[in-house]
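Exam prep: given the inputs below (a chain plus xanthosine-5'-monophosphate), describe the expected output before reading on.
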Amino acid sequence: MDNNKRPENMERITTPALAEQFIQEQVKEIKAQVGDKKVLLALSGGVDSSVVAALLIRAIGQQLVCVHVNHGLLRKGEPEQVVEVFRNQMKANLIYVDAVDRFLDKLQGVAEPEQKRKIIGAEFIRVFEEEARKQEGIRFLAQGTIYPDILESGPVKAHHNVGGLPEDLQFELVEPLRLLYKDEVRVVGDALGLPAGMVYRQPFPGPGLGVRCLGAITRDRLEAVRESDAILREEFAKNGLEGKVWQYFTLIPDFKSVGVRDNKRADEWPVIIRAVNTKDAMTATVEDVPFALLQHITNRIVNEVKGVNRVCYDLTPKPTGTIEWE
Ligand code: XMP
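Solution:
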């Protein structure tokens, strides 16, 4: 039997009872696979890695070693939430790596988008590798591979996390979600007691805010992206748009324009808001956000976010725009 092929008669996990049944089966399977050995997991705090972590904690507790790399490009509150949920609440064995300076130093002055992505990806592997080498007795690597990853990557396993580790760190894989679709992963996450904000979060690119701080990343502009994004998310949540709009975020281009602050002309950045709906991210339409809400968000951003004097709403569907700007 092909372990990576979803059986035709496999029931779709749509209810808490079906999720519980899946969890119990997986706990048994994981225990049988892992025995008393240790398992390493790169825990980003995204849906897939969070659900894998919660499942493995249920199955093998302290034999799981989670590594959370804070690369400085996460959204406001995300690293704190990972620590709170996994270390404080679920009592997981969690290693938190503050790699913010490392990443931002490496990215300094780099403006080309693909180069930025490469640096972020390569540095992530390096940090993870260093942490893996500090651990003794690791025999397995857990990954949040889900069924669409397998379908998209064909015979080559290419899930976003930690492909690219060197030869001597090629552990046996533990991929308990590999036959599930995203909606099923969320039902399982709910059943495992993860917070809704984690289970139902919108997609977030691996390079994070790095692709939303356009051009060469600077710390002050990155902070402005993070703060404006937090305001947008807060207002969307308050106004019933969270969970309704597929993806929404802010970005800041690498130029300033003149405005007026404290009765003086002042050069500051514009913030651009993007809010789109899509089924498969290949095409996308723009959310019809109420104008009054856009005005309210604009007021908050220009008053609360340092260095920002304008807010624009991107009205472009995909195509011709992409969802991200770089
Ligand atoms: P685009 O901008 O191509 O985005 O319309 C489509 C979807 O993919 C996400 N995206 C990425 N995800 N690494 C990721 O993991 C990336 O480099 C990346 N670039 C874009 C984007 O957020 C959207 O959901």
